[in-house]
Structure formats: structure tokens, C-alpha cells
Write a structure and sequence with these properties.
By secondary structure, the protein is an alpha+beta fold. The chain has 16 helices and 10 strands. Among the domains are: 123 residues, no CATH class; 63 residues, SH3 type barrels, CATH 2.30.30; 83 residues, 2-Layer Sandwich (Alpha-Beta Plaits), CATH 3.30.70.100. Helices cover 61% and strands 12% of the residues.
Length: 464
Amino acid sequence: MTEKATTAAKPAKEAPAETAEEITKGVTETFAPMLEHLDSIYQIIAFRVFSYHGLVQLCLILLLGVVCWFLRPTAIKAFDRLWPSGRKSQLLKLRTTCQQLLWPVLWLITLWVASPIMRELGYATYVLRIATSLLNAWIFIRLITSVVKDPFWAKAIAIVTWVIAALNILRLLNPTIALLDSIAVTVGDSRFSLYLVIKGALIAAFMLWFAASATQLLQARLSKAKNLTPSVKVLIGQLSKFGLLALAVVVALNAVGIDLTALAVLSGAIGVGIGFGLQKIVSNLISGIILLSDRSIKPGDVIDVGGIVGWVTTLGARYTSVRTRDGTEHLIPNEELIIHQVVNWSHSDKVVRRKIPIGIHYDSDLLLAKQLIYDAISETTRILDDPKPNVLLRGFGDSSVDLEARIWINDPEAGLSNVASELLENVWFKFKENGVEIPYPQRDLHLRSSIPVNLDKAALKKTG
């Protein structure tokens, strides 16, 4: 029984494997229809291009290109009148690219005009259509690469454009779209094909890029507006940014074919997530909008929050950037500026007062010391004459007569400690020149002991 089973199983193990010729034959049979289609397209293109009608079209294309080249200087002069050049123009690179594309644009226009004329005369226009597709792709790629700054995205756009142009020339664009559309997945009543996904991704990428570019252009325009306050500029910029991004997402979803009403449940889940997980983020976002709308803190203000003194450089949607005098950037969440006490040195007026304490010796001339402080104040550059500075007698301390110089400045963003340092330096030199003494701390030491101390005067004289 065992030998028979072994003998019966042996032929299955020694079954001949599939040969390389059979594999090659199967692959050839699979791709044979596609290869035949490509071969037929090649034969058609070769026949149409190298035929009498094709040669006439090639000559016409070259003739129109030469004519447009000689018309190029006239077109450049007209272009310069319509779009004058400017050094400060944000679209200078785009203008230069458009000027360089005048020749291919004129060439393309003449080809568009020549195509119906050739059809009326009884000539084929296949070669004209190929030239038109190539010129369209070339012009589109040059325009996009002049606007898109990222080299990766510029190269990706160029590759996609050339692929579409090649498929259109080979008459494979519609079959390719049909093939991609046939690869689909159905979820409920919605059908998602590979073509729709690619189309939606391309539209979403374009809309997001357009939203970012439009926001940058709008912010550049707002920065030059003199009638708007800095907080209003930032508020308009942030609201336009979020609005354009939301519009880009909605357009991309509609392009894919997603019904926005079906997202009601998802929106509720997102709302719950925002209420729990994203509470701080939303709080900072709302706090930023409040700060921008009530203009309590705006770019350029000098603030003191939590011991951090600096001026506001950026007021964003989530945080506020405060730059200190040592160049450190502090990113403070907007919520902190709402719930904590903030000292704004330039909220309604940049004119602020500083109090600088100065002490003199009890034996010094008080009136002379006050006059010298006034002289030092007049020699300090940033101190204002109006409001008038003042020197007050604040009290009698343990070691000194306590004076206080009260001064006014109108540029707190330039620093608060450096003006005090300059004034104290001037006071120091004034006091040294006029013999006004700055006291040292003095202490009286009283020794009490129950053990009598006997001092040997002779011993003290010897040691002295």
C-alpha cells in the first residue's frame, strides 16, 4: 500500500515546468492588441506626415514660424506699452516670461487661423494639429514654471503636460481616460474611479496653489495700504487665507463627485473631536481672531507678558511672535494673551514714562545733584523735552538720599533698558566731575557680651 501511494505521487512531483517560450508567448498574446494599435498609429502618422498634404503642412508651419519671428520686435514694442516694466513689480518674472513667449503665441495664433483655411482648400490638418498641441504644451509649461517657485512641482507639471500632449497627438487620450475610468470602486451610491481620483488630486493641487498664491499677493497689497491699521491687515489676510483654502477643498471634492451633504455625519464627528482633542487649537484660533478684531495687540506693539518684553513681529492664527532685544523669538499662544495680564507699552500712544532711581550721599549738595541730573537728562538722546522730565526726592534711605528721575520716550520698540543705561552713565560722569558722592551701604554693628573683655593697651600699641 505504501509503495503504490509513493509511485502514484511521483508523477505529480516530476510535472514539467512552464518553459520560457510559453511564458514569452503568453506575454506577447496579452500585449499583441496594444502593439498592433501602436503600430497602426505609427503607420498612420508616417503616412500623413510624409505625404503630399503632410509636406505642405510642414512647409506652412515653418513659413508661419519665420513670419512670426520677424513680427516679434513689433509685438514686443506693443507689449511694453501695454505692460510697462517696473523694478518693484511682484509679477516681474511673469512679465519677462510672457515677453519671451510672444513669438510662440503669435505662431500658435497663426496656426489656429490657418487650420480652417486649409480645410476649406481641401487639405488635411493633421500635422497642423500636432504642431498646435506641441505649442500649447510649450507655452503652458513656460507660464507655469515662471509662476511655480518649487522646482519639483514645476518639473512634475511639465511631465504631466507633455504626457497629455503626447497622448493627444497619438489619439490615445480618450482611450486612456476610458481605461482609467473603468478602474473603479463603488461605495454605496457613489462610484470612485481612478480617473476621478487623479482628476480630483490635480484640481486640489492647483486650487491649493492658487489659494496660497492669491493669499500672498493679497497680503503684499495689504502691506502697502496706508489707510488700514496693522491688525486689520492681518485680520483680512487670515480670513481670506482660510476662505480660499476652504473653497479649494470644496471645489476638489465636487470635482471628484463627492456629495457634500453626505459629510454631515463626518462633520459631527469632527465637531466632537474639536471639542475634546483640538480644544486648545481652536481656542488659540478664536483668541487670534479676537485680538485682531479688537486691536488690543497688533504688529509693532511693545508688550510685556510673563516677564517677556519685546515687540510683536507676527500675529498669526495660532500664536503671536514676540521678538526681544537679544533677538530671541518667543512664540506665545494667543490664548495666553487673552487670559493673562499683558502690558502694552504702545497700545494707544507710544509715549511712555520711565522711572529711574538715583541715590546720593547725605553730605552731598541736594540742589546741585538735582541740577546735574537735569543736565544729564538733556544730554541723553532719546529722552523727550515734552512732556518735561522731572527729578523728585522720594525719601531718606538707610544709606542715601533717594532721588528719582522721571523721563519720557516715544520709541519703546528701540529698548527700555538702554535709555536708562545711557542716562545713568551721564549722571555718573556729572557726579564725578562735581564731587557729588554716591554712597556705599552703611551698617552699625553693636557687640553685646556677658563676659568682660580686658584690653591690654601695651599689647595694642606693640601690634599697632
